[in-house]
Amino acid sequence: MPADIETLTFEQALSELEGIVKALESGQGALEASVAAYQRGAALRAHCERKLAEAEQKVQAIVEGPAGLTLRDVE
Fold first, then answer.
1. What is the Rg, in whole angstroms, of the alpha carbon atoms belonging to the chain?
2. What is the pLDDT of residues 11-65, one digit of tens each?
C-alpha cells in the first residue's frame, strides 16, 4: 500500500475513492491511466476497510459498568 494512503483519514480516502469511481464510470481517459486509477482505488478501499474495522473495535470496547460507560482493553 502506498505510504501516502496510510496517512489519509477515512474521510479523505473515501472522498478520493469516490472521485476515482466517478472518473472510471465516465469511461473517459486512457487505458493505462484507468488501470492506475483502479489500482489506487483498490488500495484506498482496503485502507477504508481497515479504518472501519479499527473504529468498530473501539466501539465494541465501550462497555457499561457501575460507574457508567468505560473502555475495556481491546486485543
1. 18
2. 999 999 999 999 999 998 899 999 999 999 999 999 999 999 999 888 887 766 6
Q: Report phi then psi at 61, rounded to 5.
A: -80, -10
Give which of 50, 36, 49, 42 is closest to 17, Cα–Cα.
42
To the nearest 10°, report the CA torsion of 57, 73, 11, 25.
Answer: -30
User: 20 and 44 in contact (C-beta within 8 Å)?
Assistant: yes
Dig out the grid coordinates for 41 from the structure.
482505488
pTM over 0.85: no
DSSP state of 27: T
Question: Whole-angstrom Cα distance, residue 18 to residue 47?
Answer: 14
